[in-house]
């Protein structure tokens, strides 16, 4: 089994070498690149593939073992463990309905609920005057006790004043918009990848530098007014984003369409 080696050690790299090795091996295991009935290469072989010391490799393997991704058997070797399928799924199409359903079936903890002056970027996104007051909330969503998303929302002050911190802890935000007379009808979003900061890692029960799926979404009402800007950071081991594709004709050629 060939493992792509991470970059060589760099004095400016903030992450320990064993952490970067762990991230690559973890992804390989989760992707099913190692057969469950075969042992992984030994530490010496893996250290050679990654270009690291055996001590560095041992630290990475010890963490994989602690997290239940591998099992060690004396005299037999180290075997990958089949990881459970992602428990939370949501599709890009029909996102409004899926987010409401998610809110009704997951637990939320509100970590912060304040009114703050909007930054220049937030004000522009919500089409507000620079420095306008917005409601900012930070929430953690969990499924069966495991956190899977960190949501940071900014809402115009007049809309945010229609619900309380307690409301946000017990009702999906989209339903609170509708109750306030501002039903959401559509959204625009981008998806990218980020590395977890120490604070994000603490809230999501991860390690700093772990990969996160980052979704930025602007939610609108029927009058094209922005109701919310949300940044969502998702653990890729507990959440996956799905999209259904179809084929259509464009300029006499077949292309994929959502």
Which tags fit this structure?
Chorismate lyase; elongated; Arc Repressor Mutant, subunit A; Chorismate_lyase_/UTRA_dom_sf; Bact_HTH_transcr_reg; alpha+beta; six-stranded antiparallel sheet; 12 strands; 2 domains; two-stranded antiparallel ribbon; 258 residues; single chain
Question: What does this protein structure show overall?
Answer:
This protein is α+β, with helices and mostly antiparallel strands and 258 residues long. The protein folds into two domains: 17-80, Winged helix-like DNA-binding domain superfamily/Winged helix DNA-binding domain (Arc Repressor Mutant, subunit A, Orthogonal Bundle), CATH 1.10.10.10; 88-242, Chorismate lyase, CATH 3.40.1410. Helices cover 29% and strands 35% of the residues. It has nine helices and twelve strands. The chain has helices at 17-30, 43-50, 54-66, 95-105, 120-125, 157-160, 165-170, 173-179, 198-204; strands at 70-73, 77-80, 88-91, 107-117, 133-143, 146-156, 184-195, 211-221, 226-234, 239-242, 246-250, 253-257. The strands form four sheets. A six-stranded antiparallel beta sheet has the order 4-5-6-9-8-7. A hairpin with a 4-residue loop joins strand 8 and strand 9 (226-234). The longest helix has 14 residues, at 17-30. It is elongated, with a radius of gyration of 22 Å. The protein starts with 16 loop residues before the first helix and ends with a strand. 24% of the residues are buried. Residues 1-12 have low confidence and may be disordered.
